[in-house]
Amino acid sequence: MITAGIDMGSRTVKVVLLEDAKVEGAPALQFVVKGKHLMFPGDLDADAAADQAFEEALASAGLDRGAVGAVYATGAGRKMVKFATDSVTEMSAGAKGASFFYPSARTIVDVGAEEGRGIKTDGSGKATDFAGNEKCAAGAGSFAEAMSRALQMSLKEFGESSLRSDRSIPMNAQCTVFAESEVVSLIHSSTPKEDIAKAVLDAVASRVCAMVRRVGIDNDVVLIGGMVHNTGFVKSLQTAMGVDEIKLPDMPEYVSALGCALLAATQRA
Amino acid sequence: MIANYGYKDGSGEYYISIDTDQCITCPVGRACLGACPKGMFESMVDDYDDEVVHVKEQFRRSLAYDCAECKPSTGRGPLPCASACTPGAIGHSW
Q1: Whether the predicted interface score ipTM is above 0.85
Q2: Residue A195 forms part of a structural domain
Q3: What pTM does this model have?
């Protein structure tokens, strides 16, 4: 059966199509990703964005809607995907997807555009504990994005430049708006950009880490979500969590969509 | 699963944790649902098909204010939700 996972994030829509290839005699299903992964802006018309992303994914895989046995949705806008067969929480999808890449994963850190969360898993891909921040985006990607804009740097430059700094400048503001004024003050005091970038990413990492500590930190730690692409953040998070290694999947922003498609395949099999 | 609902902001950390494994075999008929004066809890079927209790979405961003009436600065008694849940599945971080 072909299943689809749609992660309806606050900024982008991610689609994964899976074909489960049952291998004769094998004790477990083997999953093959079918089709190209796509990311669409989740703009104001969320349902249309999800629909468009799904259609494009189907077209790239040479499939039509009838070929897909089940569509599971997750993410902040999961209820807006009207054509979804079912929806699952970001915690279940993230735990399932991360465990697919790393069965040894016990602590999963998911940092997307607007939300960050810590998830514990038991090795079977089931979420056993979670904590998120329902209120504030200061521990998430859009905060880093806003600060990179204030520094007139691309997100890539922003992350990489922070790696060149070895200074620790505390940022006291908890709110993006106030943090931006702290950044502006640092610019005015001629603080090098790389030091400011590190200060911002350390602050994001510290907030994410405080949240993850609520569920506890056990190895292996896996980071998923778009912030994986920010090398400076990964380093800051590793330092804040005090772990030797954070495992980074190849397609970090699609892990939850993949988890969703995996859940659809196992629950509908 | 220990589900932590809430947030951290400049004024503190406000989380309600629910041990949903305890909800599955709740011996007190989900007394927490009626015990909260604000009606913040509701029953739902989770992703693993278990019937559990969670904090309603509209309260998750304002726990500090919504729980305030049960948490006066002086003469604070036991919390109605935590008291009603005799298995001790409900906890508050503040």
Answers
A1: no
A2: yes
A3: 0.89
